[in-house]
Amino acid sequence: MDRIRAYRAPLTLGIMLVVAALGLVALHGLLAEVRLKDIRHAVHMIAGWRLGAALALTTASYVALTFYDYVALRIVGRPLPWRTAALASFCSYTLSHNLGLSLLTGGSARYRIYTAAGLEGGDIARIIASAGLSFWGGVFMLAGLLMAVHPADIALMGMTLDPALQRLAGVAILLAAIAGLVAAGKQGGTPRLFGWTLALPTRGQALAQIGVACIDLAAASAALFVLVPGIAPALYPTLFLAYALAIIVTLVSHVPGGLGIFEAVIVAALPDVDRPALLAALIAYRLIYYLIPLLLGVIAIALHEGNSWRHPVSRVLDGRKPPRRAWRRSCCRCWWRWAG
Description:
Layout: H1 2-6, H2 8-30, H3 36-44, H4 48-75, H5 82-99, H6 102-116, H7 121-149, E1 155-156, E2 159-160, H8 163-184, E3 192-193, E4 196-197, H9 203-225, H10 236-253, H11 261-269, H12 275-310, H13 324-339
Helix pairs in contact: 2-11, 3-12, 4-5, 4-7, 4-9, 4-12, 5-6, 5-12, 6-7, 6-13, 7-8, 7-9, 7-10, 9-10, 9-12, 10-11
């Protein structure tokens, strides 16, 4: 057991590289008959209005995801202004979307920003857990709704999901969500599990979490959908289910940005869509939804750190600012935790 722990980091890296390689091999096989010049031509054929619409939908998605933390802060009983929650959430998600290992990359960004705002490690852990539950709740709610209302023709690895089975699964997911909302009650709760104090949302907060996640995921998937020239509107449910599956596989694999894996799942789930056009849309989507926000996130973190050095943020205790020496001690503790 100790030997496994000693080699956990290189083993994790090795597994990630193997999974990424498998994803790229699968993608290469799916695109074996596609020529590079066809892809270049398809990229040039993406209309300007499609790029503009994708940018607008990406903006809507990232604005929505800032409310994951805003709602989570209220669930754990440590409300902060939206601008602080937005900075922490945006920086966290831009890093984790592109670099993988969300608890390490995104968690570090949240830790830096929230500790500067006066939160403790336990509060930050509960915020991350609550935001994660919001995201997954949105994935399953939207997928369940689409499967119940409009089952899609999805074929992966030679297997097709039966529409009747999809409808049944969708109805089951929706009923489970309704039961969870009914059980949430008006007051929420703070049960303990394995020594951890959990923060359960009230019914209103749970509805807010689901709403935020649905807006985020609908906008993010629509940003990809509008980039595909000539795709029929009736294919959106299929694309969303493929998108949700691609996200799940990406998060489980921890491959940075799901590079190769995300694209392979989307291409495999949409066999009737023109391959060069779909790949061109995925390239544009990678730039718009992943790389541009990453650049903005890095700039935001740099500005925050620079501002922290110039103007150390005081912790607010019982509504009063601590004396100047306490400010310095607090900032030193944050620095040593980060540097260590």
